[in-house]
Amino acid sequence: xxDNPIRIYNSLTRRKEIFVPIRENCVDIYVCGMxxxxxxxxxxxxxxxxxxxxxxxxRYRGYQVRYVRNITDIDDKIIKRANxxxxxxxxxxxxxxxxxxxDLDALSIIKPDYEPRATEYIPEIVDMxxxxxxxxxxxxxxNGDVYYRTRMFENYxxxxxxxxxxxxxxxxxxxxxxxxxxxxxVLWKHSKPDxxxxxxxxxxxxxxxxxxxxxxxxxxLGNHFDIHGGGMDLLFPHHENEIAQSEGVSxxxxxxxxxxxxxxxxxxxxxxxxxxxxxxxxxxLEMDSDRIRIGEILRYVFLSSHYRSPLNYSDxxxxxxxxxxxxxxxxxxxxxxxxxxxxxxxxxxxxxxxHAAMDDDFNTPDGLAVIFDCVRELNKSVESGxxxxxxxxRNTLLQLAGSLGLAQMEPSRFLGVGGISDDxxxxxxxxxxxxxxxxxxxxxxxxxxxxxxxxQLGVEIEDRPNGTTVWRRT
Length: 474
Ligand SMILES: [Zn+2]
Known about the structure:
Bound molecules: zinc ion
Number of strands: 15
CATH superfamily of the largest domain: HUPs
CATH class of the largest domain: Alpha Beta
Structural class: alpha/beta
Shape: elongated
CATH topology of the largest domain: Rossmann fold
Largest sheet: 4 strands, parallel
Number of helices: 16
Distance between the termini: 45 Å
Strand content: 5-15%
Helix content: 40-55%
Low-confidence stretches: 417-425
């Protein structure tokens, strides 16, 4: 491990902190995963890529990481969807877990070390609720529900900054709920007819959503662990409630560092089915004949923004990411032709700059800028025929990009057979079209800029008198 400490923004303290693991050189991390009743969308993809790159980078820096990502396989939405389409819950969740795995594989998301499912942890969940009841943090109601007595937990609101009195103003109690206080939340739900149920001291029922993450993280990582992550939308109430549950039971600190990734927008609006800007991962994967290639391109889209920044996805995002990755693969392709041997040496200056960027709260845009400096230096070395330098820079590029899960396929595969792709999806066709449109609108500055961009990619264009444009690889 190097001298520089890693600094991570902690949502709990609202500042960047030097990361000090609980056990030396080890990191235990829990990330809230998917509720499996539908296809994963781009918002899910962003969370998965964000924490995948965190885990990859920590491992690359020599930490032993235990990575837990749960699957919520019982909840209201799952029950409703199963009833709506007349499928058993078991069959529905199994099906969508398979789809999720296919999608995440295409994005090169590494498998977590543990992938607990809520339904596999019912005894642990019941045990945790029992202990909360014993300690007065929870109470069973007459209808068989068990609720968390929110006002009992002194530090409630520490993560989100929410105040109990403000929450009480907006809180409402559903007709079938029997809460002492509207801000209380459910830990155990009594069973309704035709719903899956498990036995408990309070009668047959099923767990509420928040309790599963407390029970599963404690079972696998202990009462106190290093990092808990998830999307920004989970900060309140899900993560606030997890703290109340876990610290209520243990009377000690639950998690040292809370990480949340920023929101994703599509065409500058919140992604929603009603706005018709809703995109599933598989809809994007279908945009290319090679799932792994388009998966990497999508991965690059996310990494090109800082994980905490809001990210706006548009049609251009994929094109730009494809072109950026082409530059990396083109450089590797040429280097492989010119290089002599594989080396283990890396360029210490480039590595140090890359680490400085990534050690600062996983700043992937700055890290990618260093990767492109490496690409430029590698291209120069290839032009000058400096074979030893080519090997070192090529190895550096593979290692740095690899720590972000990028540039892991054969360059010839990404670029297409023989190194140059004629695939219409490779971004060239899109650029040519964009230039044609610009010319049509007499926006010659843009047209010239795109012509230069194409020239850099080794594409020559020729405008015909009848207005059409032909292009060829040089
Ligand atoms: Zn969770």
